[in-house]
């Protein structure tokens, strides 16, 4: 036995649209994958081992940690078999648990049974506007953070605006 034959890894509930980028907004970060049966997988950040797992008879492994505060980290997932063979997978993980600031409406007017709104919000966040009748309207805020939208004026004149950032924080 001179090398590790298989080692894969993925982030559970990855919030990135790319499989090569790892984003999370969870308190408990879970990674899983496949590897050589009986080998040990370690999660290492800045030289500190945060979690370990043994690859099960199914060839699958899973480990979790709640020790990563918000920020960007280079993590190492290292698999080592009983013969001392190692394989290291280095990844960058971005952790963000902070909700975006509430959107601000800077202008509104009613024209022809439409309410026209303009405002500011976190760039690239999604705004969800829900009226008192349960109708929902969404828009993605442009890079400059300025948004505008026209929706039918609700019969009760009430609506809520919720902001969701790119990683899913509300």
Automatic annotation (TrEMBL):
- Superkingdom assignment: Bacteria
Keyword Lipid metabolism among UniProt keywords: no
Where are the bilayer-spanning segments? 37-57
Q: Which UniProt keywords apply?
A: Membrane, Transmembrane, Transmembrane helix
What the entry lists under InterPro entries is as follows: Big_13, Ig-like_fold
Keyword Transmembrane helix tagged: yes
- Which Pfam families does this entry report, sorted A to Z? Big_13
For the Bacterial Ig-like domain, which residue ranges apply? 17-96
Q: Where is the signal peptide?
A: none
Name it: Bacterial Ig-like domain-containing protein
């Amino acid at each position: 036995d001179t090398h590790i034959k298989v080692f894969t890894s993925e982030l559970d509930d990855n919030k990135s649209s790319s499989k090569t980028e790892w984003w999370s907004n969870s308190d408990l970060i879970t990674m899983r994958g496949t590897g050589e049966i009986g080998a040990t997988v370690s999660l290492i950040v800045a030289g500190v081992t945060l979690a370990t797992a043994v690859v099960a008879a199914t060839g699958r492994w899973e480990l979790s940690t709640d020790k990563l505060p918000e920020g960007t980290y280079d993590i190492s997932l290292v698999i080592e078999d009983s013969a001392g063979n190692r394989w290291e997978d280095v990844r960058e993980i971005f952790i963000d648990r902070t909700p975006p600031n509430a959107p601000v409406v800077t202008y509104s007017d009613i024209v022809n049974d439409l309410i026209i709104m303009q405002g500011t919000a976190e760039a690239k966040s999604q705004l969800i506007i829900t009226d008192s009748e349960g109708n929902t309207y969404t828009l993605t805020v442009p890079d400059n953070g300025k948004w505008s939208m026209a929706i039918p004026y609700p019969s009760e004149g009430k609506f809520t605006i919720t902001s969701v950032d790119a990683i899913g924080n509300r």
